[in-house]
Amino acid sequence: MKFKLLFFTLLLTAVSFSQNKGTITGTLTDKDANNQSLPFANVLLKGTSIGTNTDIDGKYTLTVLPGSYTLQLSFVGYESVEIPVTVIANETITVSKALGSAGYKLEDVVVRSTVNRQKETALLLDQKNAVEIKQTIGAQELSRKGVSDVATAVTKTTGITKQEGSGNIFVRGLGDRYNSTTMNGLPIPSNDPEKKNINLEIFSTDILEYVSIDKVYNSKLYGDFAGGNVDIVSKDYKGKGFLKVDIGSKVNTNAISEDNFSLQKGPGSFGFSAIAIPANPLTQYNFGSLQLDSKTPLGSSIGISGGKSYDLGAESKLNVFATVSFGSDFTSRSDGSAKGNVTGDGIVNKNFDTYSLISYNTNFTSMANIGYKMNSNNKINFNTVFINNSSQSKEEYTGFIIDIANDGNGLIRRNKYEKNSLFINQLLGEHKLGERSKLNWGASYNMIKGDMPDRTQNIFRKEPSGYVLSSISFPDNHRYFQKLTENETAANISFDYKFNKSDDDTYNGKLTFGYNGRFKTRNFEASQFNFRATNEFRGTLVDPNNLDLFYNQQNFSNGNFEIATFRGGPQVPNALDPQTYNGDQFINGGFLNTEYKFKKLTTVLGLRGEYIFQKVDWNTQLDPNGGFNELEKIAFLPSVTMKYELNEKQNLRFGFSKTYTLPQFKERALFVYEDVTEVKVGNPNLYASDDYNFDLKWEMFPKSEELISVTAFGKYILNPMNEVTIASSTNDISFINTGDFGYVAGGEIEYRKLLFDFDQNNAKKLSAGINASYLYSNQDLSTEKVIKETDYNVVFTDTQSKFTGASDLLLNADISLLNEWNNKEGSLNTTLAYTYFSDRVYAIGTNDKGNLVDKSFGSLDFIAKSKLNKNLGIDFVVKNLLDPTIDRVQENRTGDVNVLSYKKGLLFSINLNYQF
User: Fold this and answer.
1) What pLDDT is attached to residue 140?
2) 120-238: which CATH topology?
3) Domain TonB-dependent receptor-like beta-barrel, which positions (predicted)?
4) How far is CA 12 from CA 6, 15, 20, 140, 553, in A?
5) Above 50 in pLDDT, residue 398?
6) What is the pLDDT of residues 876-905, one digit of tens each?
7) Does the fold of domain 120-238 match that of domain 19-99?
8) Residue 812: exposed, middle, or buried by beta-carbon count in 10 A (0-12, 13-18, 19+)?
9) What CA–CA distance (Å, rounded) separates 108 from 238?
10) Going along 758-894, which residue ranges are E strands?
11) Mean predicted confidence (pLDDT) in 433-453
């Protein structure tokens, strides 16, 4: 009884106490930014510990005892304001204020912007206020989710997946050809002759501030757009000087469990080895060793970064940032099997019971950013990035090979070394020419060099007494050298002019016009040296792990084997001439945008015009005399974007545009690229597609860390391009305009939620996020169209198909627990992140063969990042916890045939960092 009385007394006291309190509330805005909301500003009662921060809408609320106080309002780079207030019990007083920047601290205002651009809350604010429909993911979120490269970063946004085993991404079910990549708004060349876009895995997240993904077209972008544009915004450091050192290690469970992890001798450990075609390759045997070298499959990483700002006067400032890092890892595919050349009846020409791929990969990244702020109106930035990545791999297939190993006693081994170097140089400028006008410009010069030096392949048949080399076809055993160089110059310039000034000193209209141009040249050459044992030595027993005993100068001089290219042996005058193709592409585009705000509705009307010229010439084994092809196109591309502000927290957006999709150089060159299980050949008759794009999106921002959005989208594509199998003796794959039309329709949903906030300072909180995308794709397949428009014969198995790369369902989910202590100098952030995609088409079936389909799977990662104090941090990451079996099947009418299967294993990594 006494306990109940005490309880009710305390409850009554608490209620009485709370009822006697008063409330101070209000909204803070930015006077220098047309009175936009000012999030994350400081609100404090002077002389007390009572305070808070404004939310994403600039709003704040304080509940205090009655009395007289001085309210302090402040923000970095802005003048502090003190306002006396009198709080009355059970009443609410509203104090709203527009803060202006301090004249002597104008440079510090940029500090606020730069820091916020990496934060999830600030990027959500940008997304809310922007007229364009875009998604962004910043350095803070990437760190929390354990993401270390840009390819993985973009898959954490809605509707985007990555092709397994590569850095190629699919946006809303549309693959490489439909997407584009830029850095700070300027284009980046591809490092792969088969791809339009650069492998995003080579970009470390250390160099970026955030990644922006445009899935809705606007006329400032190049018109070669249907899926999306990924823009890598490089780090632009401003603030106090710092120096940070990282060191780490990683291990793959499959790689460490290999009995003997061995790769071909030759390439060095740092990925910079340059291997050239040896002298006199047809008359002397000067090639590198084919022996294997054992490795300890333990990856490592090291990095150093630093930055500092220098005051050069009252308004001038120089900001410098630089980073250098090197990382390596070992990977292995286990429990693998593979099939090649499967007919519609399930007859298999290559049936490999075991398949394995082990690799050693390196990535060296360096970047420097120099920003010079002359005054509050003029700023210039210079970015230079050098990236060198390499991959050394050994791929093995054992089993049935028709006409070579009919008893299932075949072995194919392919050793490959790839090295790609990318050099990016950019100069960017921003100039405020007055209250109404602004000039932005940028220029870049990029160079890429991609080498595949000394790829080796050998095919064996195991006899009772040992292995013998196959001699059925001259290319069965070969060494292959490939070089790609590409240079690209690009320029952007745009001019903004504001008009129709309103009573509150804001402008309702803005006119933007500008120019984009890009000019690139590509030179590609490939040489293959085929080795075949002469008649009397075709039964010679060899050791697959010591082929140097057979392939050497003495045996070559004795006539045990011969060497030739596709043009012939040493007796042919031009036998050493490589296969080549060269490409030139010029795009000149001009655009005009008109933006106008009608109270809650903002509309942007855009019109872009482009002239596109593309030329490809070649001299290859398919056309030894050489040939060329030209593509010319003039495109007028209208677009409209609308944003309707339903209220302070909700927007409704609409977008519609016309774009196009260009074929790539290699797709139009008569060049053959042979892999173990497939052969690809170009099509000179390939031409561009036209695309029509539609988006409708509703979004809500409940709190500074929360988002709810729902999107409906659709795309209609005329003359879509696909990879298909053409009628040939080797079932080659080519690139074809497969039908008259195709379309994609779907919906996306995203939800970010702060589940629990355990204290008012956000020092302990549990948050979660989920995004999902569902789409339906369909395209017309016309055998008659292909036969009429090309020199190839194709008989489609079906008259309709999904788009290649299209998954019906994409899903990303994560949950994070943050715990901070010692005034946020120490912290622990743990995250579980899950990714899933459903079945997707890899290649369209022909000649009664079904589509090749990558089967669905999900991936679960665990990330723990801790700051032990303000200087020392430690990270621990486990990726691919579920370790699913990854399958590719051919969906024949008689049943699915599994053509590829393997597991990747788990990846454990630990990293230490220290910041001075």
Assistant:
1) 65
2) Ferric Hydroxamate Uptake Protein; Chain A, domain 1 (2.170.130)
3) 470-881
4) 10, 5, 12, 45, 99
5) yes
6) 989 899 999 999 998 888 888 888 999 999
7) no
8) buried
9) 9
10) 764-780, 800-801, 809-821, 826-837, 840-843, 852-854, 857-867, 872-879, 886-892
11) 93
Amino acid at 59: K
pLDDT of residue 112: 35
- How far apart, in whole angstroms, are the C-alpha atoms of residue 765 and residue 743? 43
C-alpha span between 687 and 664 (Å, rounded) = 10
Joined together, the tokens standing for residue 490 give 């690009």
3-state secondary structure of 643: strand
Asked if 674 and 630 touch (Cβ cutoff 8 Å), the reply is: no
Q: Which of 157, 208, 213, 145 is nearest to 181 (CA)?
A: 213
- Say yes or no to pLDDT of 118 above 70: no
Strand partners of residue 81? 73
Cβ–Cβ under 8 Å, residues 297 and 256: yes
Could you tell me the two tokens for 467?
């292995």
Which DSSP string corresponds to 142-156?
HHHTT--BHHHHHTT
- The identity of residue 449, as a single letter, is K
Q: Enumerate residues 6+ apart whose C-beta is below 8 A from 478.
A: 456, 457, 528, 529, 530, 531
Mean pLDDT, residues 699-706: 82
Q: Does the structure show a pLDDT above 90 at 300?
A: yes
Angle of helix 120-129 relative to helix 106-116, nearest 10 degrees? 100
How much is the pLDDT for 814? Answer: 86
Please report which residue ranges of 212-337 form alpha helices under DSSP H. Answer: 253-256
Q: What is the DSSP string of 559-612?
A: TSEEEEBTTBSTTSTTTTPPEEEEEEEEEEEEEEEEEEEETTEEEEEEEEEEEE
**What digits encode the pLDDT tens for the residues 653-692?**
999 999 999 998 888 888 887 776 677 888 999 999 999 9
pLDDT-based confidence at 56, cuts 50/70/90?
A: low
Non-local (6+) Cβ contacts of 2 within 8 A are none
Q: Which of 639-653, 834-848, 882-896, 898-912 has the lowest mean pLDDT?
A: 834-848
Quote the CA–CA distance of 724 and 892 in Å, as a whole number. Answer: 15
Q: What is the pTM of this model?
A: 0.82
Average pLDDT over residues 293-321: 91
The token pair that represents 131 in the structure block: 């007229």
Tell me the Ramachandran region of residue 454: left when phi exceeds 0, alpha when psi lies from -120 to 50, beta otherwise: left
**Whether pLDDT at 314 is above 90:** no
> Contact, 77 vs 83, CB < 8 A?
no
Domain parsing of the chain, residue ranges: 19-99, 120-238, 244-261+296-462+491-527+578-915
pLDDT of amino acid 835: 86
The CATH T-level fold of domain 244-261+296-462+491-527+578-915 is: Maltoporin; Chain A (2.40.170)
Which CATH number, 3.90.950.20, 2.40.50.100, 1.20.120.790, 2.60.40.1120, labels domain 19-99? Answer: 2.60.40.1120
Specify the DSSP element, H or E, that contains 10: helix 2-19
**Element at 556 (helix H, strand E):** helix 553-557
Beta partners for residue 174, in sequence order: 171
**H runs (alpha helix) in 614-770:** 665-668
Comparing C-alpha atoms, which of 59, 72, 63 is closest to residue 91? 63
- pLDDT tens sequence across 6-46: 444 444 444 444 457 888 888 888 765 556 677 777 888 88
> pLDDT digit string (tens) for 775-815?
898 999 999 999 899 888 888 888 998 887 778 888 888 88
User: What pLDDT band is residue 105 in, cutting at 50, 70 and 90?
Assistant: very low
Contact 97, 28 (CB under 8 A): yes
The owner of tokens 């709003």 is: 59
Enter the tokens of residue 91: 């009443």
Element (H, E) at 303: strand 299-311
